Structures are given as C-alpha cells and as structure tokens.
Amino acid sequence: MFNILRISLISFLMLCGLCATAQSDGNFTVSPDSIPVPDSLTESQLTDYGTMLQSKAKTLLDTCLLRSANAAVFKTNAGVELSNARLDSTLKQTTIDSLAKQLRAAEKAVSLAQKQQKQAEKSLALADNLLALSPEKQRKSLLKCRQSVLKTTDLIYPPKKVEKPIAVIIGSETVGAPGQDGNAKQDSSAMSNQGKPTTDSVLVKTAPVKKAKAPEGPRYKAYNPEEDVMLHPPQPPCNIAAQSKDEFSGEVRKETARAELLRYTNPVLRSYLKGKTHILCDVSMTSIGQNQFLNLTYTINDPGARKSFGGIGTNNLLILKFVDGSTLTVFNQRADEGSVNAETQAATFKGQYLIDRPTLKKLRNTELDKIRMAWNTGYEDYEVQQIDLLMRLAKCL
Q: How far is residue 60's CA from residue 73's CA, in Å, rounded to a whole number?
C-alpha cells in the first residue's frame, strides 16, 4: 500500500510539473515594437523573417509533441494505479479518491496539450505556406503568420498576470494618527485667564487625512532589438537521445536527438502532393570516442523514390555550403537503398558521414546555408531552413 501511495505521489508531482511548465518554461514573447512593415522589407528580408517564423513554429510544435507524449504517459500511469487500487481491499476510500483526482488532473493535462499541439500545427502550416508564396503574397500574409505564431506562443507560455496595486484594490481610506480613535474627547479642565473656571468646553480632534497616491501607470521599457527573442532566440538545450559506454574499449557513444534540417517540395509536384511535403530531411550527430558522424534521414513522399533517387551509395559525397561562402565535403560511410512504408508509401533513406576535426570546428562556428546531396542517380541542391541547427548539435558533442 505504501509503495502505491509513494508512486502515486511521485506521478502526481510530475503531472503538476507538466502543468506548471506553461508558467516556467521561459519568457517567449515579442515586443509589439518589433512588428515588421511588410511593404518596407526586401525579398531577402521577407524570406529571412518567414524562415525565422517557421523555425519558431517548429520549436513550439516540438515542445507540444513532447508535452503531449508526457501527458499521455502520466494519464496511463494514473489509470493503472487507480485500477490496481480499486482491486486492493486493504486501501482506504480516501486513497482511492486521491488517485481518481490524480487521473482527472492527468486527463485535463492531456486535453490542454492536444489543444496546444493543434494550434502549433496550424502556425507551422502557415509558416510553411508563407515561404512557398511569391514576394507579393508574402507581404500580404506575413503579419497573419506572425500573429498565429504569437497566439501559439501565448497559449504554450501564458504571460504572467500583473497584480493590481493595493491602493486600486482597497481604494482611498482615511488614516488616523497613532493613538487616536476619531471620537470626540471632552476637556473639562479649561480655565479662564483670571484663574476662574469656565463652562465645560468640548475639544474635537480629527485625524489628519492622508490622500492615497494615485496608482502609477504601467512603465514600458524602451525597445532594444538585441533583447528581441524573435531576432535573437535563446539557445535551446542539448537533447541527447542516447549515451552509453563500451565495457571493453571504454569509448563513450553519444547521439543527439533527430531534428528537422530542411524540407523541400518540387513546384511541379505541389498540385499532385496536395499540401504534403515532398522531401523532409532530419539530422542528428553521433560521437563515438574520437570520431564524429553526421546522420541524415530523408523521408520522400513518392512511391517511386527508390527508382528515382537510386539510394545513397558508399562514399557518395555531401557538400556543405556555409553562409560565408565556404564549402566542405564529407563522404557517406554505409550504403542504403531505402525502405518504403507500406501504409504511407513514403521512402526513407539514411546516410552517415564521417566528420573530421576541422569540419567539426567549422560546424560549431558557422551557419549552414545549403547542401548538395549526391544520390546514386545524380545530385540535388537543397536550401537549409534551420541554418544554426548543426552549430547547436555540434556543440552538444
């Protein structure tokens, strides 16, 4: 019984932590002064701002997916604990009621996480569509897309409520001097100047009135572009998916979680795919002792992708082009002819590229602009949306 209570308490505390995340994940707001004027932006600036919104929307969606997964786990655990408790005749009804309350709280957390995820998916879809539009249509849709990202941000990270000043809540009140109760007091010891007693006189003392200060209006801090998180987003924490140590060699293996590097849809295929992304590329990095690897996973929504692309052969090159104009070439370490999902008909290809020390140093310090991917049937160039992603992954290793 005590073990069940202890597990229930731990699960409930974890659930509370999940619900409180919306208040403590950090300040993810944008100053109204940073609203862009679309007509004044160049095509390059439109693309940069749209890419920034897309990156933010993707980060928000990743957060929602993680919360949804955690909430589902907590709900499942809470349901199992409640079912087991009801089968245990030695437990008191108060314990069962507490577990039932815990399950209801978990269900609310699941509902909230699903609501946040739906809004995040909507914002990401708007951001993806924005980048596919012409510059004229981008100017018309930019503010709508930005407003959707801000709405998602406020839903996931609700702004803290500003408490009203106490003077506004209780209003103005008369404050009496210490030791005075406001009642009239009679002084019967008054004497005339000749020393003769006079008739009784009443002296009324009134408390001095202190006017309550009018509440001060809100104070606004001057806008500083350097503090705008939309222009200078905070550094996300490292997300290590796996870490282990070889018992014989003593080498430590560490792998980061996969994250989206780019997505591309051929304009010719947009009407055919009906809103689906043609090519999606996820990336992760692996460190094994002194060796580092760049892992690319391509998901291609095309039943004939294996024939069209031919897979990734051993020693197929990958050219990395950075924003400073420099390029580096890495080579695939293992061949992959691809696999097809029977349900979605999407093909998946995986490549693993050995990274030497100079290349790793470059990845840590310079944003990535484009990549040239060599398939068995030829090569294609792709623009990278998250230009700083490899910088963050490399620093995690």
A: 20
Q: Which run of H or of E encompasses 291?
A: strand 291-300
The DSSP result for 52-93, as a single string, is: HHHHHHHHHHHHHHHHHHHHHHHHHHHHHHHHHHHH-TTS-H
Backbone region of residue 179 per phi and psi (left: phi > 0; alpha: psi in -120 to 50; beta: other values)? left
C-alpha 231/C-alpha 321 separation (Å) is 23
Least confident of 53-57, 110-114, 210-214: 210-214
Which phi and psi angles does 193 have, rounded to 5°?
A: -65, -20
CB 117 within 8 A of CB 43: no
Q: Give one DSSP letter per residue of 118-135, joined into a string.
A: HHHHHHHHHHHHHHHS-H
CB atoms within 10 A of CB 266: 12
Q: Please report where in the chains the tokens 């974890």 appear, as a residue.
A: 14
Structure tokens at 181: 């109760």
Decide if 126 contacts 114 (C-beta within 8 A).
no
Instruction: Indicate the average pLDDT of the chain.
Output: 80
- For 256-303, how does the pLDDT look when each residue is reduced to its tens digit (9 = 90+)? 999 999 999 988 888 888 888 999 999 999 999 889 999 999 999 988
Q: What is the pLDDT of residue 389?
A: 92
Could you give the CA distance from residue 369 to residue 327 in angstroms, rounded to a whole number?
10
Contacts 24+ apart (CB under 8 A), 90-96: 90/1, 91/1, 91/4, 95/1, 95/4, 95/5
* CB-CB contact of 50 with 131 (8 Å): yes
**Under a CB-based contact definition with an 8 Å cutoff, are residues 189 and 64 in contact?**
no
Inter-CA distances, 250 with 214, 245, 254, 287, Å: 69, 6, 13, 13
Looking at residue 177, the DSSP 8-state letter turns out to be P
**Number of Cβ within a 10 Å radius of residue 385:** 21
DSSP 297-344: EEEE--TTHHHHH--B-TT-EEEEEETTS-EEEEEBSS-B--EE-TTT
| DSSP code of residue 243 | E
Question: For residue range 349-363, what is the model confidence (pLDDT) as tens digits?
Answer: 999 999 999 999 999
Tokens (6 digits) for 98: 């507490």
CB-based contact 294:355 (threshold 8 Å): yes
Q: Which of 41, 268, 52 is nearest to 135 (CA)?
A: 41
- Of 23-32, 40-49, 116-125, 343-352, the poorest mean pLDDT is in 23-32
Nearest C-alpha neighbor of 234 from the set 73, 388, 5: 388
